[in-house]
Amino acid sequence: MRTLHTRRTARLFAPAIAALAALSLTACEDGTGTKDEGASAPVSSPAAAQPGKTDSGRPATTTPAPDEKAEGTKGTEGDDKAAQDDANASDSAAAPENRVLCNGSNTKVTAQPVPRPLNHMLITVTNTGSKLCDLTYYPVLRFDEMQWAPTAAKETQPQAVTTLAPGESGYAGVLLAAADGSGDGGATAKKLTVAFQGRTPNSDGGATATPPLPAKGVYYDSSLTVTYWQQSMDDALAW
């Protein structure tokens, strides 16, 4: 009778014992007596699941980013307009009706002998007016009371008229005497008169200038020659 009761009890508890055994085996798999169940699964919050809403469920307010493209376009348009205005102003200043001839009334003129090239002098004309002025052709020089004017070296004629903005300078070189002494009729001048030409060759360009010469004077002979007006000092003395 007791044997029969024992068998029944064993059959009733067999499933539970098997389950406990399985749990014990699983717990020992990591060698520590506990099982690594892995990281806990993230819990999603309602706010994260619903972008654009706050924790209270109300729509989130967002400040719109500045329209960078629009601002960039505006800046570019402003720069373009300023550049165009400058170009228009420059074109207006350079218009024929706004340009005048350079002469003794709107320039400062100096005449200075230079050590190189030998027997040369540099004439410098600086625009002291408020408008563009043109230096046309070449200077017409007269030392003291001489009755002839020196010729201009044709090879020095520039491709365009030398134009001076206010404050800018133009130049002309002067060969005073032949370096080898081949010139004749030499003399020492104490006074120089610089005349300016008009829009056509040998026409009157306006007021003359009388730049001072060195106290000892300037020696010249029949070789006396000038260059055309140049934009650069180097070009004026390169001949």
Q: Calculate the terminal CA-CA distance, rounded to whole Å.
A: 145 Å
Radius of gyration: 50 Å
Q: What proportion of the residues form beta strands (DSSP E)? A: 15-25%
Structural class comes to: alpha+beta
The biggest beta sheet is recorded as: 5 strands, mixed
How many strands in all?
12
Mean pLDDT: 77
Instruction: Count the DSSP helices.
Output: 4
Stretches with pLDDT under 50, minimum 5 residues? 1-54
Q: In which range does the helix fraction lie? A: 25-40%
Strand order of the largest sheet: 2-3-8-12-6
Overall spatial form: elongated
Order of helices and strands: HHHEEEEEEEEEEEEH
InterPro entries: DUF4232 (IPR025326)
Organism: Streptomyces galilaeus
Pfam family, one: DUF4232
Protein name: DUF4232 domain-containing protein
Provide tags for this entry.
5-stranded mixed sheet, elongated, 239 residues, 3-stranded mixed sheet, alpha+beta, DUF4232, 4 helices
